[in-house]
Every structure is written in structure tokens, then in C-alpha cells.
Amino acid sequence: MALKIGVLASGRGSNLQSLLDAISAGTLDAEIVLVISDKQNAMALDRAAAQGVPAVHLNPKDFNDRKSYDLAIAELFKERGATAIVLAGYMRIISRPFLESFPERVINIHPALLPAFPGLHSQKQALEYGVRYSGCTVHFVDEGMDTGPIIVQAVVPVEKDDTEETLAARILQEEHRILPEALQLLAQGRLRVEGRKVQIL
Ligand SMILES: Nc1nc2c(c(=O)[nH]1)N[C@@H](CN(C=O)c1ccc(C(=O)N[C@@H](CCC(=O)O)C(=O)O)cc1)CN2
Ligand SMILES: NCC(=O)N[C@@H]1O[C@H](COP(=O)([O-])[O-])[C@@H](O)[C@H]1O
User: Fold this and answer.
1) Distance CA 113, CA 201 (A)
2) What is the pLDDT of residues 88-104, one digit of tens each?
3) Strands 197-200 and 191-194
């Protein structure tokens, strides 16, 4: 049975598109049942609508606090039957009540080799640190900031003339490969979280 995925996205939506493309290509056994964005102008909403996927903007300013916002999102996903949630460039911290609604079923894509360079502007952090290699990470989401158990990573070389933009573009290509790969492992029931580690069966 296809994995029913809910997606949270705040921006351009290229990682969402990589999931949509993998589903269309038959390499990801899933259905995206709903896309929610905290940003009204998020291109991710347009990408979803273009493929007939329900897409809604939910304004955090319409809620008293983060937890009530997150619980409203969780309810919308539950109503659509989502059993896995993907943060595809989602720029808000997810609170515990949401994570408790989808235990070990919330996944994030991060543009660095965690635990290096968590948080925002990871590509800039990597350049300023002077690393020779960076990359991207797909991980389960916990209450910490990019601290959840790691599922898949990909390594990307840093070139001497890289800018934040050129490095981000190189990493993004690998993000688009490993995010669908990780979700297919989840769809196949091949991921087992054992403490900090994720066993791939
Ligand atoms: N509980 C978790 N939530 C999220 C995680 C996570 O690992 N655990 N990953 C992040 C993604 N992210 C970086 O990888 C990230 C996103 C957002 C922020 C942040 O500080 N956001 C502010 C600003 C919100 C806004 O301006 O609209 C906020 O939430 O107040 C830091 C890191 C996704 N969530
Ligand atoms: N801290 C989270 C974070 O930085 N996420 C990053 O935002 C970009 C979203 O691009 P997209 O909207 O084209 O998928 C991606 O590079 C993703 O890794």
C-alpha cells in the first residue's frame, strides 16, 4: 500500500518536486496527500497544485502559539490520512505535540553533513569554516534542532571558488536524490530506529 505523505514547506519546493517526480517515475511508492506552508507565497504550494495535490497556507499569526499552530497542522494531516510527514525546506521548529502525533514518522532534509552545521544557513557555515566536503542529511525529526537519528547522507565536495549559492546548488542536487531514497526505505518498512541509530533492513 502506498505511503501517505504530508509535506511541510516554506519556500521554493524543489525537494517537494523531487518527491512528486519520484512518485510519477514509480521509484517512490507513495502518495502526497497534502502540502501545507506557513508562507502564503511559497512556490511549493504552486508545485503541489500543478500536480493536483491539495495545498494550503496556514498562517502562524492566526494562532495563539506554536503548539496550537502545530496541532492544527497535525489535525489537517490526520484528516487526509497522512502516516508520514516530510519537512521539505520548512523553516519552523516543530513542537512536541506534533511529533507525538507522528512518532518516528517525521523526516527532515538538511543541507549539511549533520551533526555539522545545524540550523539555518548551513552552506554559509560550511564555507566560513573551510571544510573540504559538505553534503546533506535526511533524518528523523526530534525536539532538538537537527539532532534526530540520521537515515541517509550524501557527501559533496566544496570547490575553492564556491559561493554560498554554488555550494547550495551542488548540495541540492544530492538532496533531490537522497530524500526520495529515504522515503522509499520508509515506504518499504526498512527503517528501524535503535536509539541514536537507524538500521536499514
Ligand atoms: N523539532 C524540530 N523542528 C525542525 C527541525 C528539527 O530538526 N527539529 N528541523 C528544521 C529545519 N531547520 C534547519 O534545518 C530550521 C528551521 C527553522 C529554524 C528557525 O529558527 N525558525 C524560526 C523562524 C520562523 C520564521 O521566520 O518563519 C522559528 O521557528 O521561530 C531553524 C532551523 C525544521 N524544524
Ligand atoms: N534548515 C532547513 C534547511 O535549510 N532546509 C533547506 O532549505 C532548502 C529548501 O529548498 P526547496 O524549497 O527547494 O526544497 C533545501 O536546501 C533544504 O535542505
Assistant:
1) 22
2) 999 999 999 999 999 99
3) antiparallel
- Nearest partner of 74 among 6, 11, 4, 145, judged by Cα: 6
pTM greater than 0.90 (yes/no): yes
* Reported ipTM exceeds the 0.85 cut: yes
Q: Are 126 and 134 in contact (CB under 8 A)?
A: yes
Shortest-distance atom of ligand 2 to CA 108: 2
Among the bound ligands, name the one nearest to the CA of residue 87: 1
Run of H or E including 130: none
Ligand 1 atom nearest to CA at 148: 7
Does the 3-191 domain belong in CATH 3.40.50.170? Answer: yes
